[in-house]
Prior knowledge:
Blueprint: H1 4-7, H2 9-36, H3 43-50, H4 55-60, H5 67-73, H6 84-87, H7 98-122, H8 130-142, H9 144-151, H10 156-170, H11 177-186, H12 190-196, H13 198-202, H14 206-227, H15 231-243, H16 253-256, H17 262-280, H18 286-300, H19 312-315
Helix pairs in contact: 2-8, 2-9, 7-10, 10-11, 10-12, 11-14, 12-18, 14-15, 17-18
Amino acid sequence: MQTNFLKDKRVWAVLYVIFGALALVSLIQGCRNAMMFSNDFQWDAVKVFTMRMNPYTESLTPTNLLAQYHAAEQFGPMAANQFPSLLMLLIPYTFLLPQTAKYAWLFSNLVFTGMIILLLRKTFLKELPKNLFIVLILLMIAGTPYRNQLGVGQHTLFSFAFFLLAVYFTEQPRGSIPVTLCLAVSYFKYTLTAPLALYFIYKRKWKELFASVGIHVILTGAAALWLQTDFLDMLLLPLKVSGALAAEGGIDLGALLNGSPVAYLLAVAVMGLLLFITLRMPKQQDALLIGLLTLWSLIITYHRTYDFFVLIIVAA
């Protein structure tokens, strides 16, 4: 039960003003950083891919294919740590010049932010009191994780928005195709959304889950043909590139164990436990399950703090 203090509209008005101002400053700074940096956007990796050259071998053994771009944009060496079926999703941005592509990606991330806010309200946070929902959203935008997410041009906003859209479509009488397609897109940040995808097992959406993975199997095969390389390379090389970051996360097992292979074994064990819990979880426990999956998604595998804005679900 809310106290009389929290029922006072003036209290909420003050909170709106304070957190709204903080959110505005954070949003402006995040946009400024994105226009300057966006280092994690991976425009360079996708551009090399469209040139029919292997972005993974270029990442592991640089030949400076895009040296002029990197010098102009003050980027470091290429780090293609996404599977080719995911890089393909960014191909439209390669028709733009690098700086223009940065602006387009920033605009896209702002659209994804709007989608996240709307879809959270229509899914997991629909029972939350309106005033508390607004304050939590403002806190999310005011926070360092969200600001850095924008500034470095990360892909978690993209993935999380489409994950929530897939969840939304599960509650609509529109068939399985929208759920499958949105879930497939959400895997761009698979270190986050692979654990979250267990939610669809909880909902017994087996067909949609397997079909979403099947899309990436087909696209990976197409990428292998495009780059004239082995299918297995298209799976192992991105993992080899990303493996270099295993010890550089925030609160994950890899950081805790300093990149030890034991972290991967523990991650598999935890995923198995989460699967068991998901299968045994009683109905009408959506909020409890998604909170649990969100927390563990940040612990199982490598994540820097810019991904922690998703903890809004746990906070709620």
